[in-house]
Amino acid sequence: MRSISMMDILMLALGFALFALAIGYTYACERL
Fold it and tell me: What is the mean pLDDT of the chain?
């Protein structure tokens, strides 16, 4: 098992950011 590289952390953070953005967007639409 290889060690976690910086690229893996970057991709994970990017995916999580997009996921949070999508949830925040739908939440904002429901508030309007």
Answer: 91
Mean pLDDT value across residues 10-32: 95
Q: How far apart are CA 32 and CA 12, in angstroms?
A: 31
CA distance 14 to 32: 27
Distances (CA, A) of 4 to 15, 17, 32: 16, 19, 41
Task: Give the start-to-end residue ranges of the domains of the chain.
Answer: 1-31
Its pTM stands at 0.62
